[in-house]
Design a protein that fits this description.
single chain, 153 residues, alpha+beta, 2 domains, 12% helix
Length: 153
């Protein structure tokens, strides 16, 4: 794949309802259906496949936060190759929570042991988030019950 000197820019605005407004180099991407946050990966893959080149993607959330990344076209499957079946997603379940309690799902980025006084201080380099295989935990917001779930490697 040849990378162009200047990348096309895909602007994605996500409103408070999760609806996407997408343009490529300022030209709105027309669609007869409403696209939501769940469609974002498919929309970006479609754009990069059509262009046959990487693009710069700039996402602006309704709260004003932004995210920028460079996305390459998906790798096409070799001709005649069968797609392996997608394994089922593991269910996240936990016990020990209070009835009706709000339960949060948290992503553990890094773990560290506390010092002799029970204190811990973590300084995270930005690249760590992209390279970490942490775990997920279910956290009871009232009971503080924690149920760990290790993501498969």
């Amino acid at each position: 794949m040849k990378v162009p000197i200047v990348l096309s820019v895909v602007h994605v605005a996500i409103d408070a309802d999760g609806v996407l407004a997408v343009d490529v180099d300022g030209v709105p991407l027309d669609s007869e259906q409403t696209r939501t946050r769940d469609h974002l990966r498919h929309v970006i893959d479609e754009i990069t496949s059509d262009l046959g080149a990487p693009v710069r993607v700039e996402v602006r959330e309704a709260d004003g936060s932004t995210f920028t990344d460079v996305v390459t076209p998906p790798t096409p499957a070799p001709a005649g190759a069968e797609q392996p079946p997608t394994p089922p997603r593991p269910a996240l379940a936990g016990a020990g929570f209070r009835p009706g309690e709000e339960v949060a799902l948290a992503y553990v980025v890094v773990r560290q042991n506390a010092d002799a006084e029970g204190n811990a201080s973590l300084n995270l380099p930005p690249a760590l988030i992209a390279a970490t295989r942490g775990g997920l935990v279910l956290l009871g917001m009232t009971s503080r019950t924690v149920t760990p779930f290790e993501a498969p490697a």
